[in-house]
Design a protein that fits this description.
Radius of gyration: 22 Å
Number of domains: 2
Largest sheet: 7 strands, mixed
Strand content: 15-25%
Pfam family, one: Aminotran_5
Protein name: Alanine--glyoxylate aminotransferase family protein
Shape: globular
Cofactor: pyridoxal 5'-phosphate
Oligomer: single chain
Structural class: alpha/beta
Keywords: Aminotransferase, Pyridoxal phosphate, Transferase
GO biological process, one term: glycine biosynthetic process, by transamination of glyoxylate
Helix content: 40-55%
Order of helices and strands: EEHEHHEHEHEHEEEHEEEHHHHEHEEEHH
CATH topology of the largest domain: Aspartate Aminotransferase, domain 2
Strand order of the largest sheet: 4-12-11-10-7-5-6
């Protein structure tokens, strides 16, 4: 085969055969077979009447999963970062002030996106690996009087679940700030109640606790938040993610804006059907039970969790790397010997923690035991002071086996 840049030997490229991994890192998680099957069904046009019905289904199911009645609830065409940028880039106008947290990698990403949108960024400080303190948030709100307040509900870089969410949102609303929540690692995996907790805007990714390939990412906005978007004095700097334009496609008109990622919408529809069939509260409980078994196993093995029990994040378990062990070597060994993916730390915790997911379809008893067995074996072989047998036994007991 000859191309503009030369020739290509197709026989050297061959058929696509990716490795069959067990995905227990920070995402993506294992995809449910029903979701993969949905993606293999025939394409229709993005304005086909049948696809309009599919869009309606997705919106209804997203409302259920977010625990919201927000009319403006959609899957953004793109990864979770696209939903994040749609939220921040539309809610932050040039000259607006956004208050962001410093306690993790994704608070820093919020800050970066707000600056690109023309906003002035101020910070509420908290160490990496700790949640925001409500008093510190209240003080920062009083000092800076921001237009927008953003926080990360489940910080993927540290394994911390933010408690006291209603207290944070109430303080922000006392200063007339719009509240944006990063729920990428919480949606479908830990308790999340958008309306009851007073969250104005929440964005998420499909590839974690929803066990759906990336491509269509959840976003919900309250009426007040959408009013701020539609009353902007200056257009959003992104045409593609301009919610005032997307409103025409996902709203009542269903007018052309872009060609939606049709198979990704099929996928998230089926993933959300699985959530609804299981029941959202039952799904939260499953994640807590299985991640609790994982936590019991790693602690019995002799390892330490990064986050205290008070703000432990079941869907993303941050485990301290034992002294004298290289985290990258462990992750590589797990991939090569066990086809098992976990991840190293990010940012301030790079080299200090393993990040072990327990999400969606990956959150199964056999996977918990597999992680404990493989991790214990690799660490023991590298000379770490661990007891793999005790870890597996504790995990099995916690699972009731």
């Amino acid at each position: 085969m000859t191309a503009g840049g030369g020739s290509v030997d197709v026989s050297e490229i061959g058929e696509l055969v990716p490795p069959d991994r067990t995905l227990m890192g920070p995402g993506p998680s294992d995809v449910h077979p029903r979701v993969l099957k949905a993606m293999s069904t025939p394409l229709v046009g993005h304005l086909d009447p049948s696809f309009i019905e599919i869009m309606n289904d997705v919106q209804e199911l997203l409302r259920y999963t977010f625990r919201t009645d927000n009319r403006w609830t959609i899957p953004v065409s793109g990864t979770g970062s696209a939903a994040m940028e749609a939220a921040i880039g539309n809610l932050v106008e040039p000259g607006d002030t956004m208050l962001v947290p410093t306690n993790g990698y994704f608070g820093g990403r919020m800050a970066s996106m707000a600056r690109r949108a023309g906003g002035d960024v101020v910070e509420v400080d908290a160490p990496w690996g700790e949640p925001l303190e409500p008093d510190d948030v209240a003080d920062a709100l009083a000092e800076h009087d921001p237009d927008v307040f953003g926080f990360v509900h489940a910080e993927t870089s540290t394994g911390v679940l933010q408690p006291d969410v209603p207290e944070l949102t109430a303080a922000a609303h006392d200063h007339d700030a719009v509240v944006i929540a990063d729920t990428v690692t919480s949606i479908g995996g830990v308790e999340l109640r958008v309306d009851e907790w007073g969250i104005d805007v929440a964005y998420a990714g499909p590839q974690k606790c929803l066990s759906c390939p990336p491509g269509a990412s959840p976003l919900t906005l309250s009426d007040d938040a959408m009013e701020k978007v539609l009353s902007r004095e200056e257009q959003s700097r992104s045409w593609y993610l301009d919610l005032s334009l997307l409103e025409g496609y996902w709203g009542d008109e269903r007018a052309y804006h872009h060609t939606a990622p049709i198979t990704s919408v099929y996928a998230i529809r089926e993933a959300l059907r699985l959530v609804a069939e299981e029941g959202i509260e039952q799904r939260w409980a499953r994640h807590e039970r299985l991640a609790g078994a994982l936590k019991a196993g790693v602690e019995a093995m002799g390892l330490e969790m990064n986050a205290p029990d008070a703000y432990w994040l079941p869907s993303l378990n941050a485990v301290r790397v034992p002294e004298g062990i290289d985290d990258g070597d462990v992750c590589t060994e797990l991939l090569e010997r066990y086809d098992l993916e976990i991840a190293s730390g990010l940012g301030d915790l790079d080299g200090d923690i393993f990040r072990i997911g327990c999400m969606g379809h990956s959150a199964r008893p056999e996977n918990v035991i597999y992680v404990l067995t493989a991790l214990g074996d690799v660490l023991e072989g590298m000379g770490a002071d661990v007891d793999p047998g005790r870890g597996v036994t504790a995990g099995r007991r916690a699972l009731g086996e």
